[in-house]
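Regression test attached.
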Amino acid sequence: MPRTDAVLADPRLAATAERLGRAVVKDAIAAAQQRVRQGEIEPEDVAGAALAALPPHATHLRPVINMTGVLLHTNLGRAPLSPAAVEAAAAVAGPADVEFDLATGARARRGRTALAALADAVPAADDVHVVNNNAAALVLVATALAAGREIVVSRGELVEIGDGFRIPDLLVSTGARLREVGTTNRTTLADYRAAVGPETGFVLKVHPSNFRIEGFTGSAAVGDLARLGVPVVSDIGSGLLEREPLLPDEPDAASTLMAGAHLVTASADKLLGGPQAGLLLGRHDLVERCRRHPLARALRVGKVTLAALEATLRGPAPPVHQALHADPRELLDRAEALAGVLAGSGIDARAVPAEATVGGGAAPGVSLPSAAVSLPERLAAPLRTGDPPVVGRVEGGRLLLDLRAVHAGQDGDVARAVLAASR
Ligand SMILES: *Cc1c(COP(=O)(O)O)cnc(C)c1O
């Protein structure tokens, strides 16, 4: 059995140890030595086997090709960053002027350039702030504006956002009390008016972003709530900054503020297409109370996030925008080309029309015409564990690889992954 330090001296492994760290390389060598003991490989192949088994990066998190047909898949990290955002994030990995004024040499407002980009993108907002995610934005608003007081909210908007986390529980955890009004399907302005009083911290509107109630329904308009004499906070969810004609029911920050909301909260990694962050936009005095609250320090974002957010706001349209606006005819052409290549290698592959969804807590019930490569279901597991992992969805006994969330430049990777998985 070759000794570990002898194998580590292999120049290729030594170079990898420089890049990924010694521990990762030693683990790979130990695994290769084990394979020798089990008679799977020869002793002289240890270095090669270790090299082949090493992860490409110093992390076990792996980039995945999302072919689920869910554009914003929370379990797959929601919005993919634009190349501009990736570049901006990498550029500030070292020391950066995140909280420093290079002109004067003095301390400066943290993240001011990202905040300015957000303010420029939504002129209807007097002021803006950025925290770790939308849940953090809600916690901060509830703490700063309603701890020990009441948040008036409709029973139809007590939403579970996923993985067992519920907005009402989140709000109550801050020490605020919920004053529930109306019913599941209907809540009127009069319901809110009857509940608002000296104990009210604010009225909260929550966008039902992952479900739909249809039939005999009714809710009060933000503009009417804004005249009740207390702050109105609107959690719009998806982070659309302006109207998206393709998604007419999805609220956006500009229209919601224009309609009268005093404060809007949103996620940055849904339809905005940016990094995980929570956005607060609205009246200066309310944003300032949130920004000045001690909790704000615990919820602040890092420079990498700020850089990616600014590049998303100022740069070219992010991938989620392209996926949303992809032409179904072109998607079908791509699916046909891919299926043709695979069928040529003897794989049972065909192009089929498919239905994609926005997902990630946005546009529930909206179906986007798409196209997929249909494959035998047994390929699902080897594709998930391949390199790169490809995640599709199983439907009617077939594995569908939906192309809507995939950049056309990746079709070659998909073809290679399917060929490797079917070997
Ligand atoms: C997604 C969502 C949240 C949670 O946002 P995170 O950024 O995941 O914390 C809260 N409210 C609504 C309406 C949402 O859609």
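Expected vs. actual: identical. The chain has three domains: 4-53, 65-77+322-421, 83-315.
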